[in-house]
Amino acid sequence: MVIDFHTHTFPDSIAEKAVAHLSRVGHTAAFMDAKRDTLVQSMKENHIDISVVLPVATAPTQVSGINALSAKINGRDGVYYAGAVHPDCGNIDETLDFIKANGLFGIKLHPDYQGVHFDDVRYLRIMEAAAKRGLYIITHAGIDIAYRDHVHCTPDMVLHALDALGGIIDNKLILAHMGGYELPDEVLEKLCGKPVLMDTAAVLDLYPEKCAEIIRSHGAKRVLFATDSPWRSQKQFVELLCSLPLKEEEKENILHKNAESILFAN
Ligand SMILES: [Zn+2]
Questions:
Q1: How far is the CA of 10 from the centre of ligand 1 (A)?
Q2: CB under 8 A, 24+ apart: contacts of 247-255
Q3: Running DSSP on this structure, what letter comes out for residue 254?
Q4: Is it the case that residue 40 has pLDDT exceeding 70?
Q5: What is the Å distance from ligand 1's center to 230 Cα?
Q6: How far is the CA of 53 from the centre of ligand 1 (A)?
Q7: Distance 138 CA to ligand 1 centre (A)
Q8: β-strands 173-175, 83-84: how paired?
Q9: pLDDT, tens digit (0-9, with 9 covering 90-100), for 8-34
Q10: Considering its fold, how many domains does the chain have in total?
């Protein structure tokens, strides 16, 4: 069984425009289009049983519409969704209650696209309220290729948030991109061993040896297989993960067991 814990899709009506825009600002080509049907097709071809889609709300007005749609189709064809929130939402409690009541496993934060630092007080309040409801929090971490000169989620900010919340989000926080995109040495130094999870999205192909080093140091029980599709290939990432010098049991944990305990906790 394989679970891809980090993918993106857009509604068919805006998928082409959204991918063209994101490719331009990030100077990256998409591996495939970002339509839901295309993701389901890729899953079938590559024996991925479940994909988790992480929608990002770039304005507070988008939140309720995104969540209503995600709640309606959550789990269909093996595609599960994280809830969307925005730091400037006026109704965080109501939004989180809706996400929880509809069986979504957690929320997605994107400090770069939402214009805040990870340890901003608005994010701290959202994370505290989410964790109290048993929701997971997954955030973009490290450099964002569209905003290279200003990192909004550094390992230091993660440490600060963990500390400021006094254990409330321990083991509920998932850091994308192995703890920090293009910052593997800082992750090794500061985040390995801390009570956070990490996903392999978009970095397994960039520095597989460093990923293996982080996994060994941090522990395979706290790492989730993820691609960042459509920006990366599910086929290539499964092959890469399988080729890492890890024990079979560690690979099983990363490929699906850890994710299962998050998605099907109840
Ligand atoms: Zn992503």
A1: 12
A2: 247/220, 249/220, 250/215, 250/220, 251/220, 253/220, 253/221, 253/223, 254/200, 254/215, 254/220, 254/223, 254/224, 254/225, 255/1, 255/2, 255/3, 255/225
A3: I
A4: yes
A5: 9
A6: 9
A7: 10
A8: unpaired
A9: 999 999 999 998 988 888 778 888 899
A10: 1
42 pLDDT band, cuts 50/70/90, is very high
Show the tokens assigned to 255: 């490929």
Instruction: Measure 194 CA to ligand 1 centroid, in angstroms.
Output: 22
CA of 139 to the centre of ligand 1 (A): 9
CATH number, position 71: 3.20.20.140
- Could you tell me which residues are beta bridge partners of residue 50? 3
Give Cα separations from 88 to 24, 125, 160, 210 (angstroms): 27, 11, 21, 36
Cα-to-centroid distance, 243 and ligand 1 (Å)? 23
Distance CA 137, CA 140 (A): 10
Is residue 191 classed as helix, strand or coil in its secondary structure? coil
Q: Which residues pair with 81 in a beta bridge?
A: 53
Alpha-carbon dihedral sign for residues 183, 186, 189, 195? negative
**Segment 130-137 mean pLDDT:** 98
Q: Pick the closest to residue 156 from 123, 182, 124, 119 (CA basis).
A: 119
103 vs 97: CA distance, rounded Å = 10
Helices (H), 113-252: 121-132, 155-164, 184-190, 208-218, 234-243, 248-252
Kindly give the distance from the C-alpha atom of residue 109 to the centroid of ligand 1, in angstroms, as a whole number.
10
Which residue range(s) make up the domain with 181? 3-263
